[in-house]
Amino acid sequence: MQIAGTKDFPTGPIQTFQLLTNPDVIVKAMPGMKSLQAKSDSLYEAEMEVGVAGIKGSYQGTLEMLDVVPGERYRLKVNGEGAMGFMEADVTVRLNELPTGGTQVAYDGEAKVGGVVAGVGQRVLSGVARFLINQFFNGLVKESQRVVGG
């Protein structure tokens, strides 16, 4: 399943990059994220609880940042599995400065889901993925507004 989109932030590229890569901010912004523990500068262990179409489960996994250019771009590889199935994603994130001084974050990649959770169908999974991504970015924008406002 392809995932792609953009979101505008009021913060500049460096501040936006710092928000996007801060484990404490990610835990607050990501729906269902229970914990995110750094194992290195670029690798994190994650615990999530996510419900899809009445199928709720806990997932253990990793988030790894690759090809990192602070304030410009990075690649995010996500792997997770639980009793209800597995999820893998490989997403490129690009930050572009806006004329207003803010930043547009563009993401593009692919996600794969398997197991019981995959049985709900592609259309439902695509809708849930869009919903979770929007919730995540909306949470990050709120955090960036706090940075700008105070």
Explain how this protein is built:
It comes from Alicyclobacillus macrosporangiidus. With 150 residues, the protein is of the alpha+beta class. It has a single domain, classed as 2-Layer Sandwich (Alpha-D-Glucose-1,6-Bisphosphate, Chain A, domain 4). The protein has 3 helices and 7 strands; from the N terminus they run βααββββββα. It has helices at residues 13-20, 23-29, 122-149; strands at residues 2-9, 33-38, 43-52, 55-69, 73-82, 85-97, 103-114. It has a 7-stranded antiparallel beta sheet. Helix 2 crosses helix 3 (122-149). The chain is globular. It starts with a strand and ends with a helix.
Please sum up the structure shown:
The chain has 3 helices and 7 strands. The protein is an alpha+beta fold and 150 residues long. It starts with a strand and ends with a helix.
In order across it, which strands form the biggest sheet? 1-7-6-5-4-3-2
Instruction: Report strand %.
Output: over 45%
Cα radius of gyration in angstroms: 15 Å
CA distance, first residue to last residue: 39 Å
CATH architectural label: 2-Layer Sandwich
In this structure, how is the largest beta sheet organized? 7 strands, antiparallel
Question: What percentage of residues falls in helices of 4 or more residues?
Answer: 25-40%
CATH class: Alpha Beta
Low-confidence stretches: none
Q: What is the CATH H-level superfamily?
A: START domain
What is the CATH T-level topology? Alpha-D-Glucose-1,6-Bisphosphate, Chain A, domain 4
Taken from the alpha-carbon principal axes, the silhouette is globular
Query: Can you count the helices?
Result: 3
String of helices and strands: EHHEEEEEEH
DSSP, total strands = 7
State the domain count: 1
Q: Average pLDDT value?
A: 88
Structural class: alpha+beta
Protein name: Carbon monoxide dehydrogenase subunit G
Organism: Alicyclobacillus macrosporangiidus
